[in-house]
Amino acid sequence: MGLENFINISLNKLVKASWNYKLDDSDILNKLKNNIKNNGQVQNLIVREIDNNTYEVVNGNHRLQALSELNVKEAICYNLGKIPENLAKKIAIETNETRFENDTYKLAETIKEVTDTFLDSKDTLPFTEIELQTFKELIEDTYKDLDYEDQNTETEYEEDLPEENQKTTIIIEFDDKHTYEKELKILSKKYKIVN
Fold first, then answer.
1. Which of 56, 74, 96, 105 could bridge across to 8 with cysteines, CB 3.0–4.6 Å?
2. Is residue 74 within 8 Å of residue 9, measured between CB atoms?
3. What is the pLDDT along the chain (195 residues), one digit of tens a residue?
4. Residue at a domain's end among 79, 97, 115
5. How far is it, in rounded angstroms, from Cα 20 to Cα 30?
6. What residues contact residue 44 under an 8 Å CB cut-off, 6+ apart?
7. Is the entire prediction scored with pTM above 0.85?
8. Whole-number Å distance between alpha carbons of 187 and 195
9. 60 and 141 share a domain?
C-alpha cells in the first residue's frame, strides 16, 4: 500500500459506516465545514471497497457529511481495498484514537496566538467560546504569575536547591500539570533542569 492508494472518489459512491462510533455534534460539524471552506479538504478519508462499485468510509464519516453539505463532488480518499469489516473497524480505531496527549500550556499559547491573529478562529477551532477564553486566561494568569515570581524570586522550596554549578537531584511533586509547567519555567531561569 502506498501513494497509489490515494484516489479521488465521487461522493455518490461513498457510504457512511453504520458501525461508526463517533458521536454527531452540529457545532463541531459547522466548524469542520468552515475549516473545509477555508482550507479545502486537507485530510483524506479512509475507505474500503464494498459491493456495487461503492466504498464504505472507515475513517472520515463526519468529513464526508461536511463535504456533502458543502456540495463537493469528490473526496480525496485512501483506499484500503477489499478488506473485511472487522479489519476496517480495527483500522478505524487505530487511526481515530492513536493521539498524543496535549501539552495544555503550549496548546493555550498556540490558541492565544491564533485567536489574536485570525478573527474567524471561534468559527473554526474545535472549542467552545468558553473553552477558548479559558485557554487565554491560562496564559494571562501564567504571565501574571511569572511577573510576580520575577519580583519575588524565592519559591517555597527554593531554599533546598543547590548552589550554582553543584549537581544534585531533587524531587518536587505538583498537583497539576499547569503548576508543574509554571514552576519549571521559573526554575529554568536559574538552573539547568533535566526531567
1. 74
2. yes
3. 789 999 999 999 999 999 999 999 999 999 999 999 999 999 999 999 998 899 999 999 999 999 999 999 999 999 999 999 999 999 999 999 999 999 999 999 999 999 999 999 999 999 999 999 999 888 887 766 665 555 554 455 555 555 666 666 666 666 666 667 666 666 665 566 665
4. 97
5. 19
6. 6, 60, 75, 76, 77, 78
7. no
8. 12
9. no
